[in-house]
Amino acid sequence: MPVLAVHGITATHRSWDLLAEALPEARIIAVDLRGRGRSNRLPGPYGLEQHADDLAAVLEHLGVAQALVVGHSMGGFVSVRLAERHPHSVGGLVLVDGGLPIPNPAGIPREELPGVLLGPALERLSMRFSSREEYLAFWRKHPALGPYWNDAIAGYVAYDVDGAEPELRSTANPDAVAVNALELDGSAGYEAALAALPGPVDVFIAPRGLLDAAPLYDPAHIREQAARVPSLRVHEVDRVNHYTITLAPEGVASLLPVIRERLGAAPVRKEAS
């Protein structure tokens, strides 16, 4: 069974380079979601359900009947919607520091929520850089990536460049990112879709968040979600943040035993003869 790897809200398929290297025995399918990477010129809609339908179309195009779906950050939310809308395409779910509803801060106008939820991750989308070296230097200063720099992070950053000098920018489409940032609170039936998933649904939680500080998910919120969704199997990961859980060897190493377990235990679908 292949692995369908789904990236986060401002990321690209290069989030999964280390996973692909660590799982040479498995077929890894990773694409740039609509509005990101080399798919950034695709038109909307950009919602989670559209991403899910796009991924189902990718699997159909590749002749893949079923995949183990591994989603990071917003990719976890896309993965849940994929399982909801195309259940026969999903042979299991692994959510990597994402996929659980993120409560919106109280008192924040809806139009300001993307900036509050994503902070510098959204701010960089409006920035322009005179050279690739300047863009690289910007990321080297990022608190969640700079101290942990490696070849995988360098490749991830180098791929995320669009335009021409001296007006280079991130490949992520700000309009697409803003749409998806408003869909992470569990609204529009998402909480019900998560609760209805057959188990197990493995969830990996990083102890540090987007700025290598406070985690994306408060421990009390994790406990609440686990109590509400009995199919969840929560795995706490040491020594990683929201980015390095997929972009550092120790982060990927924490995922491998469960992914290999799920691949080994996944039911085999018989093709029609």
Automatic annotation (TrEMBL):
Keyword Hydrolase carried by entry: yes
Pfam families per record: Abhydrolase_1 (PF00561)
Cellular component terms (Gene Ontology): membrane
Family annotation (Gene3D superfamilies): alpha/beta hydrolase
Domain AB hydrolase-1: 2-153
Domain of life, source organism: Bacteria
Keywords associated with the record: Hydrolase
GO MF annotation list: hydrolase activity
PANTHER family: AB HYDROLASE SUPERFAMILY PROTEIN YCLE, MONOACYLGLYCEROL LIPASE
Name of the protein this chain belongs to: Alpha/beta fold hydrolase
Species name: Agromyces archimandritae
Lineage, highest ranks first: Bacteria, Bacillati, Actinomycetota, Actinomycetes, Micrococcales
